[in-house]
Amino acid sequence: MTSVLMILSAADHWTLKDGSKHPTGFWAEEFLAPYNKFKEAGWDVVVATPGGQKPTVDQTSLSVKGGLLPNKIATLKDELARLATVLDAPENLSNVDPDAFDVVFYPGGHAPMEDLAYDEVSGAIIRKRMESGRPLALLCHAPAAILAAQNADGTSPFAGYKMTGLSNAEETLNGLAKKAKWLLQDKLEEAGVEYEKAKLPMRPHVVVDRNVYTGQNPQSSEDLADRIIADVS
């Protein structure tokens, strides 16, 4: 059976440049849409976090402020409740063998900017994974996790790779660009990534370069999962 390791952030906030803590977590749709797609394909899915901590859902991703209609919010909340046993007791990332999985998938939300961007365990998994040639996927803010996967000389193994992730324009639309210590698009470009984005903000956009799969925003969640399923099946 095809298997997926979904790695979620354990952070419940994002520290802004003034030192304040912006409440956050994983973005509901970015976890649920791929998770459901993988399960519908008959795949086995394991969820892991740093330290095995219970992940926090970003409440904005379950609100009208997050761009959702009431019926969509209700659906997402029902699905999270259904998966409570999965999310309440994730695997400890340090104890997981990523080589046992066909796909490693990182959902986003602002939370990866707080912990996965600096997590050595996650960084080692990412570096080994991309070198293996087996699928590695990162969605929205989750490409921040590649920042913890530097080479010994401080360069990024992703230099020269085509990737996407939440754009500066989209962060501005979120109202957080001016408050952030750093922006994802800037960091990816500084790492030598050939950053790509959709022509318009908040539109689906998926980029695949070798074994690295990236989606730009929440709207890319289903497309990213579909592309992985099509390539791996």
From TrEMBL:
<dbReference type="GO" id="GO:0006508">
    <property type="term" value="P:proteolysis"/>
</dbReference>
<dbReference type="InterPro" id="IPR002818">
    <property type="entry name" value="DJ-1/PfpI"/>
</dbReference>
<keyword id="KW-0378">Hydrolase</keyword>
<feature type="domain" description="DJ-1/PfpI">
    <location>
        <begin position="28"/>
        <end position="229"/>
    </location>
</feature>
<keyword id="KW-0645">Protease</keyword>
<dbReference type="InterPro" id="IPR050325">
    <property type="entry name" value="Prot/Nucl_acid_deglycase"/>
</dbReference>
<dbReference type="InterPro" id="IPR029062">
    <property type="entry name" value="Class_I_gatase-like"/>
</dbReference>
<dbReference type="Pfam" id="PF01965">
    <property type="entry name" value="DJ-1_PfpI"/>
</dbReference>
<dbReference type="GO" id="GO:0019172">
    <property type="term" value="F:glyoxalase III activity"/>
</dbReference>
<dbReference type="GO" id="GO:0019243">
    <property type="term" value="P:methylglyoxal catabolic process to D-lactate via S-lactoyl-glutathione"/>
</dbReference>
<dbReference type="GO" id="GO:0005737">
    <property type="term" value="C:cytoplasm"/>
</dbReference>
<protein>
    <submittedName>
        <fullName>Putative intracellular protease/amidase</fullName>
    </submittedName>
</protein>
<dbReference type="GO" id="GO:0008233">
    <property type="term" value="F:peptidase activity"/>
</dbReference>
